[in-house]
Amino acid sequence: MSFESEFVSKLQDLKDTQDSIVSLSKWVLQQNNPKGSSLIWASHLKTSTNKLNNLYLLNDIVQHAKKFRLYEFLTEFKTVIPSSLKISYDEANTTVKGKIARLLKLWEDRKVYSSDEIQQFAKALTEESSIRSELKQINELYNNLDQLNKISNNNLTQFSIQTKNSNNINEKKLVIIERLAITSKKNVTDTKSVKIEIKQQLENLILSLDNSLKEDDNKINIIDSKLNALKNVDEDDDDDELPMYEQDEEEEEEEEENTRKRPSDEPIEKINKKPTLEDKENESSKQEVKEEPKEQGSDVMSLLSKLS
């Protein structure tokens, strides 16, 4: 069985006891695979239901690595500690968060990591990510996929090596190959599951973007509709007012024309014509006619005075 598959199996069987943790920690250091150990441990932590137990395993590994001067283990685990602590801290209750903080204090006191490194670890616990939550989840899935691919590729390589000389395989070796085959198939199945999850997340993201684009189009249509409605109202107002302006102008011209005619209703030729002799005689006759009633009135008055 390869180191990766065996380590994964042991991580899955890890119990919440000091003996179980110390035993697995010792085994990891004996395998002398710092990079593989750190990647496999970090990958398992993400899906583990008991993250605190895995952090206790980490603590035992790095403290013994410091004690026995296995500095490469400290270097490799340092690369996965910030993200692993962040994941554990975000999902933890108040009690577990306090234990994680004490773990960092212990590393600083025992100089497992430097003060600057401890500060970086502590900062990662409460640091807000600038990546949107939707993309952050996809990013975490891709990181998990990378680690699973490394484990799967290593197991497949071991499987190819073990099955290369098929004529010289005894019964004991066949059992090992069968176990390796089962582990390799499980690795591939795990990577497929993560890929399916990534695909689903991307499809949901695309669907959300499509709906958002439709909403943007609706907003543009509403803006255009309201703008066109306002333009139509202005045009209708202009059509109503234009004949009134023309009517007012016509009325003003007509009134001005009437004003010029008001001094006399007679034609201009008749006003400027000099009176003839006939006109004078006619005028005199009119005056005599007007005076006759006045004379008759005076005779009647004199007759009445005599009778009285």
Automatic annotation (TrEMBL):
Annotated region described as Disordered, given as residue ranges: 233-308
InterPro entries referenced in this protein's UniProt entry, alphabetically: CID_dom (IPR006569), ENTH_VHS (IPR008942)
Biased composition (Acidic residues): 234-257
Domain CID, chain residue ranges per copy: 1-129
Basic and acidic residues: compositionally biased ranges: 258-297
Gene Ontology biological process terms in this record: mRNA 3'-end processing
Superkingdom as given in the UniProt entry: Eukaryota
Gene3D superfamilies membership: 1.25.40.90
PROSITE patterns assigned to the protein according to its UniProt record, in alphabetical order: CID
A molecular function (GO) term: RNA polymerase II complex binding
Name of the molecule in the record: CID domain-containing protein
Organism encoding this protein: Candida verbasci
